[in-house]
């Protein structure tokens, strides 16, 4: 009886389906009348319906005959019936595919758009001369021979002497000895293990020893550790700690969450971890950092000097500078200088910088030029003990009997070191990695040195006044002796412009490997940076809105805790063994898990804040119910996948959040469960969309996942609701067509039209560009800019480097290649081309790389750049480094090329043949370009990697490296934990209207390139509603700005400030608003941008809309510790190019 029910039920279902299908066909034909239907299409449909009717009649006949035989209860018959029903379903499906296959929307042809008028001070930096300087690093590189003679005791220097009697009781050398401990928040141990095993004891000891004697000093930097320690202290110990901070015994230098890497880091993340640390130390202790301290980052950037300067720091110290540069600077007593930005016209960014002269920051290399002697003054190496002196002369405890001799030996080193500097003040660091973790060590260092100081005090004729002193006390002494003010230029000090990359510590050991090591985490870092910025902004808007309107429901406290955790986890990774990829495998895993936590926190915050802000009635908002962001990363080492939106005929909402402060037109892509879709914009208008197959591999497409793309229009800092629904006959939706040049193509029946072609050159295009590809390799050959007709050679190729032989080989830090790059043989790879009205792409499957070049047919900046994506896998290789090269016809003279420093500024490089390949590799955090008089070619990158431009016209980007051995810099392992790693670039050809200024040492992106870069990294956040959930009424469009900001003003952050740092994390009333005015090269016209140039004028009253209503704005220093008084809301504020401005906003 049951079987009867099933069969009759099924039959009834088939009949209903068929009837519904027929009805829909006729309805849609009627509805379609408004569309342009030609007679042929109508005829086609009638023919199809007729054929359907015939087929359906046959099916029903068959079903009837089977059912008649059912009285015998035969299961074989039932199975047969099932098959018939399946076939019927399948054939209907095939018919439907026929409908969509035939449906191709004609691509829209977009116009280029008007040119953005640029003038005045917007252009002034690019057009003006280089800033004046006494030492220019490019010139130093041109002049230096980079010979490496043996300098004796100071191996990389020379035999230093000083005039006898130069220092005496009337002309004292003021020596500041500064105990320090370098504590890496993760390297060969995990962050928390370092804390519990070493850093906590260090800080406990420091507090005890400083409190016991007011003459003692100590310097410390990493707030990520300090905050853990602080939270472990009793109130009385906190009071004790506040006392040694207040009286100047304990100096917190830089005050960042970490001592950040300076090569791979982006300035947004540098600023963020600086604010987190500065805010923390100031809130808990009242301390404000005055000096910068960077003894271990592997090369140094002027961006750091700028950020420290604008945070109120008066002097800074750096250590890892190329040994030949150190020697060169030391020769002319130029190891201390005012570091000036390459774009700074009036020297307002000048920051006093001290370069440590010798090989390392350990004691043997800090008291003077002779490590064998200096080692004897590292009293932690006294025997018996944990440490010793490799020069085999151990330290002696200072006694009355030996103090005269020992002091004489030491001050000889001091005087030699002092002769490398201009002033009569001398700085002597006294420490090493994780030192002072045992009380005995502290005792030995503090007591023995005090004995020497006391002896020198009693013997002024020796000419040395020595004491424990902080870095700030040392800088103050320089100013006191020169009669200058802290922060100003001491008398006769030189000005230096340029950077300190690429670092070498000896021989040809250039540290350019770490620009690329662990690229998976480098990519993940940038993804979290963009998510954190979106989360910060969306959270601030939602929290402010809630308080303003006295609402409740938005979980402010809970999300603020997630936000602070995300800031700190991302901040931790900016450490110089984090983003650099120079930690042990299990430490990389630990960082990865923290990054994943940060990523997930940000996604939760964005989802909740954006959905709260989108509710038409805010009381309808419920946490974690209606929406879910579209990205998922399951594990710390897995690729991001996308949520599949389950579409039905009922419209489903997707919220799109643009965190940028100008309107944005861009193609967005979502993953959906059905290929046939209709998309409606905020006004309910149906817009063109395209569905692409989702590929499981080169040949197999998913049957239940598809990629849906459409062009969005989003207001400045706004949220727009789009609606998508399943429409079998949507005339606005196109299915991509697929062409295979090699490879079999999908074996299963496809909903998409698939064709196979023989090798021949082929192309894809959009409204603005045509990209041509090789028919045999599928790799890009040229790009033609349609508006000018200019065709640019742009040959993409892949290359590999091996590791050279011998004892010293490439590792996590070092790049020591076995010669020039070798072309990677690509053979005849599978080439798969997809074309459609909105997105066209070429995928090539070669050994180690899945390589995709994509063109978006969009009126926005994405329509005028070539998107390049690689999925790299070198997990099965040994000692191999992979690079992608783009060779163009740009004639960059003298092989000059530009790369960015921290995404903040561009600096010029030249290829030096006197240097090895590894010395000509530079960090690529954001952008590189080459140019001639007519054309500029830029590579914009969505992740930090290494870059070189070894031949005219080419840019080479390092993609991944796997290295089997340690490179002897303390890590104790190679780099073998490679992952399948994504990386993404935009390629941009621009036409110069005026030739570049040849002598210029800095570069500036065009306005267009700036916007294109922002669009690449600051992605549109896509937040679809959860399926089968009834969503309350939503605002269809919502912008939080009254007036968009000009093109060259970037909202770096809108950061909610924390109320207090003792106890529970809560949001305070104020927000930090950070604006950065970008520096622009006006010699490259920029058209089609949806923003204006206002010469840097911004009216703060106009900035946010009335629903948020700013009450008061106060200008402050970069990390918000030095207030500069209220700023008028009504007057125009003028921002200078390149400058970052911080404000505290009261709502
Ligand atoms: Zn370190």
How does the SSE layout of this entry go?
Elements: H1 2-31, H2 39-68, H3 75-101, H4 121-127, E1 135-136, H5 137-143, E2 173-182, H6 191-212, E3 218-220, H7 223-232, H8 235-246, E4 250-252, H9 267-285, E5 291-294, H10 302-310, E6 315-318, H11 323-331, E7 336-340, E8 351-355, H12 371-374, H13 403-418, E9 425-433, H14 439-458, E10 464-468, H15 471-482, E11 495-497, H16 519-548, H17 556-573, H18 585-614, E12 631-632, E13 641-642, E14 644-645, E15 652-658, E16 664-672, E17 677-680, E18 686-687, E19 689-695, E20 701-714, E21 718-726, E22 733-735, E23 737-742, E24 754-756, E25 762-765, E26 769-773, E27 780-785, E28 790-802, E29 822-823, E30 830-835, E31 839-846, E32 849-856, E33 866-872, E34 880-888, E35 896-901, E36 905-910, E37 922-924, E38 927-931, E39 935-941, E40 945-948, E41 954-962, E42 981-991, E43 1002-1003, H19 1007-1017, E44 1021-1024, E45 1037-1039, E46 1049-1058, E47 1067-1077, E48 1097-1099, H20 1100-1103, E49 1112-1116, E50 1123-1127, E51 1132-1134, E52 1140-1146
Parallel strand pairs: 1-11, 2-9, 2-10, 3-4, 5-6, 6-8, 7-11, 14-16, 19-22, 23-24
Antiparallel strand pairs: 7-8, 12-13, 15-21, 15-44, 16-20, 17-18, 17-21, 19-20, 21-45, 23-30, 25-26, 26-27, 27-28, 28-29, 28-34, 30-31, 31-32, 32-33, 33-42, 34-41, 35-36, 35-38, 36-43, 37-40, 38-39, 39-42, 40-41, 46-47, 47-52, 48-51, 49-50, 49-52
Helix pairs in contact: 1-2, 1-3, 2-3, 6-7, 7-9, 9-17, 13-14, 16-17, 16-18, 17-18
The protein binds zinc ion (ZN).
Zinc ion is lined by residues 182, 184, 296, 576-577.
